[in-house]
Specification:
Layout lengths: L2 H19 L2 H12 L15 E12 L4 E11 L6 E6 L3 E7 L3 E2 L2 E3 L8 E6 L6 E7 L7 E4 L11 E4 L20 E8 L5 E4 L12 E10 L6 E4 L2 E4 L4 E5 L1 H10 L3 H12 L7 E5 L8 E2 L4 E4 L12 H8 L7 E3 L6 H19 L1 H21 L24 H18 L1 H14 L3 E3 L1 H11 L5 H7 L1 H6 L13 H14 L14 H12 L5 H11 L7 H14 L5 H10 L3 H11 L3 H14 L5 H11 L1
Parallel strand pairs: 1-11, 16-17, 17-19, 20-21
Antiparallel strand pairs: 1-2, 2-8, 3-7, 4-5, 4-8, 6-7, 9-10, 10-14, 11-13, 12-14, 15-16, 18-19
């Protein structure tokens, strides 16, 4: 019996048995588990039989042509004596291929796929030890954002950065591009003189006079963690193993924001064991960066929108730091298992924050996260299968799975486990999990087996209370989902009610509010019938139009669009012209598109702002603004 028939047979038997026992929900979840295999459908490579084990990348970055040109030399292992090795590429031009440095190889390119790209099939012999691919990128590379000088903070030099997650590494490197494929790498990168190059590897702290930089990564990583940045960049040390990179004009501001990062690393280690990557540095990118942060090993890429001036948004760094355990150290086997990266990291982030900021502060994060989860469930009401933790993204772009389901539903499951078994047992379990699976991949089924063996088998009542199959293989939010203590938000709710019923802004006890209290308040205002006079009153007292806190600003601008509070429009336009963080852009453009006046404003803003946005963000906003 072939594999597909076996799976279908197993699913049918499971359903029948469960129906007979009256346990329909369990039958559905177990059948779903049986129907999902662990094949990575988002790589066309054959890394399961012929694998690239070490990469030497030798590339030159040209801002004149907006092109990366060079070679990728792969050491290969071919234990099954296969006659070809297959690499993932997308919108790359392959110039030539050599075997063992001397023999020109025969190769073919497969049929282009709009999501997966074009397979590069290289003919090899069992005795071949390496494959060297000469290539160059094109203007279709979704991983690359080329910034003109005027799109940077310094306005004097161009800038380039990559964003390889989830399957975009193949647009700038020929690579076996699956999260379950790990390799080490070295690189030589040549850039224009006067600029610095950085990678997800050992990094320079000063500019090279000749523009040539070398890099080394001795820990095996998947392709989505390949990263490159080139620009006018300076460095400032925080302590002996942490530091910050940024354009010189914002370096001091970035350093002041991140002075507690060294302490943050120590806090993470006290929770779940040693940091295994050597240095932990942060690169603050220009404002067009499409996401909050990217956990590239040794060098987190982050958005400048967290530079609020008061360290109020630095918890984002706690998230990217936590990824060095959950994600970088233990990696989701396929993008269907994405929650094993992000759910764990969200939970870990909040444990770091609680240790540094206290429980009541972190409870607000948990509650805002729960609100985000509820909103995402509503957004996906027509796609209930996408609200499972274990996804089925076969035939789809894996970026479709990058939602709050993985982050928040995953984190709340781990919180439920903690509350059920006790924090001490939970921490012991997670520390062992990271140690046992370091530099390996993990799929959902194997994680559940590991969880049962090393924790839940100790007490049958725990299994029953958690009901992990409901969380992983069923839609929606389980009734067992924990909620945080609402102590501080209850007070905010009272203030919001007073304001909407006539109390003046000056009488509100909001001066000392944290970012999260303001976010909770403003979210309530968005769903209320606040009028223009109340908007003006809030703005005059709390100067929200001028806030440097991006989280507050985004909600305030959303509220301004809804209420047509035009005094905030110039600041909102400036915000949208320079900020490329997709999380902030989507709600503002969507709100503008609800009215004829707003549509015109959205079109005007987007026409000017679009060149500053990353290609992936452009694609998303294009669909909103049409």
């Amino acid at each position: 019996m072939n594999k597909i028939l076996l799976l279908l047979s197993a699913a049918a038997c499971t359903l029948l048995a469960c129906k007979q026992s009256g346990d329909k929900d369990k039958g559905q979840s177990l059948a779903a588990e049986a129907a999902f295999d662990n094949k990575d459908y988002h790589t066309q490579s054959n890394a399961d039989s012929v694998k690239g084990t070490h990469l030497f990348l030798d590339i030159e970055v040209s801002f004149d042509t907006k092109m990366i040109t060079g070679s990728a030399l792969w050491d290969i292992e071919n234990p099954y004596k296969k006659s070809q090795i297959i690499f993932d590429t997308k919108d790359l031009v392959i110039d030539s291929v050599f075997l063992d440095g001397v023999t020109k190889a025969a190769y073919t390119l497969g049929n282009p796929d709009s999501v997966l790209g074009t397979a590069l099939n290289v003919t090899i012999k069992p005795e071949n030890k390496s494959v060297k691919i000469y290539y160059h990128t094109t203007d279709k590379a979704t991983a690359l954002q080329w910034l003109a000088p005027e799109q940077t903070f310094g306005k004097q030099h161009p800038f380039l950065y990559t964003q390889s997650e989830s399957i975009h590494a193949r647009t700038w490197i020929p690579v076996q591009d699956g999260p379950g494929v790990r390799y080490t790498y070295d690189a030589k990168v040549t850039v224009p003189k006067g600029l610095m190059a950085l990678m997800s590897a050992t990094n320079p702290q000063q500019k090279a006079a000749d523009g040539v930089y070398t890099f080394h990564m001795d820990k095996p990583i998947p392709a989505y963690l390949m990263a490159l940045a080139v620009g006018d960049i300076g460095f400032k040390s925080i302590d002996d193993r942490t530091g910050v990179y940024a354009e010189p004009s914002i370096l001091a501001k970035a350093y002041n924001e991140f002075t507690d990062v060294g302490k943050m690393v120590h806090t993470a280690e006290e929770l779940y064991g040693p940091y295994r990557w050597g240095r932990y540095d942060i690169l603050v990118l220009p404002s067009g960066f499409p996401i909050g942060g990217m956990e590239n090993p040794k060098l987190t890429f982050c958005t400048p929108t967290i530079l609020a001036g008061d360290k109020s948004l630095v918890n984002l760094i706690a998230h990217e730091l936590a990824h060095n355990w959950s994600g970088n150290l233990v990696t989701n086997h396929t993008w269907n298992d994405f929650w094993l990266n992000e759910g764990f990291t969200m939970y870990f982030e909040r444990r770091i924050t609680e240790a540094m900021q206290g429980k009541s502060y972190t409870d607000m994060q948990w509650e805002l996260g729960y609100q985000d989860l509820v909103a995402t469930m509503e957004d996906l009401k027509d796609k209930p299968e996408d609200t499972h933790l274990r996804l089925n993204l076969k035939g789809r772009n894996p970026d479709d799975g990058l939602t709050d389901i993985a982050y928040e539903k995953g984190a709340h499951l781990l919180k439920l486990i903690e509350l059920t078994v006790g924090r001490a047992k939970m921490d012991t379990f997670l520390t062992q999990y990271f140690n046992d699976n370091a530099f390996k991949t993990m799929n959902t089924k194997d994680f559940i087996d590991y969880l049962n063996k090393h924790l839940l088998d100790q007490n049958p009542d725990w299994k029953m209370k958690i009901n992990i199959n409901e969380w992983v293989y069923s839609a929606g939010i389980p009734k067992s989902c924990p909620r945080a203590d609402m102590e501080r938000f209850v007070k905010v709710d009272s203030v919001a009610k007073k304001f909407t019923t006539g109390t003046k802004a000056a009488a509100l006890p909001a001066v000392q509010w944290s970012t999260y209290e303001w976010m909770h308040f403003l979210r309530q205002m968005v769903t209320s019938n606040i009028n223009l006079e109340q908007m003006k009153d809030l703005d005059q007292v709390y100067h929200l139009t001028q806030t440097q806190n991006s989280e507050k600003a985004d909600l305030w601008y959303l509220l301004s669009i809804k209420t047509k509070y035009t005094p905030a429009y110039p600041a909102m336009r400036s915000f949208l012209y320079v900020t490329g963080r997709e999380k902030f852009l989507q709600p503002l453009y969507k709100e503008m598109m609800k009215t004829a006046e707003g549509k015109q404003m959205a079109s005007e803003i987007y026409t000017l702002a679009r060149p500053n946005y990353h290609p992936l963000t452009q694609k998303v906003v294009d669909e909103i603004v049409k």
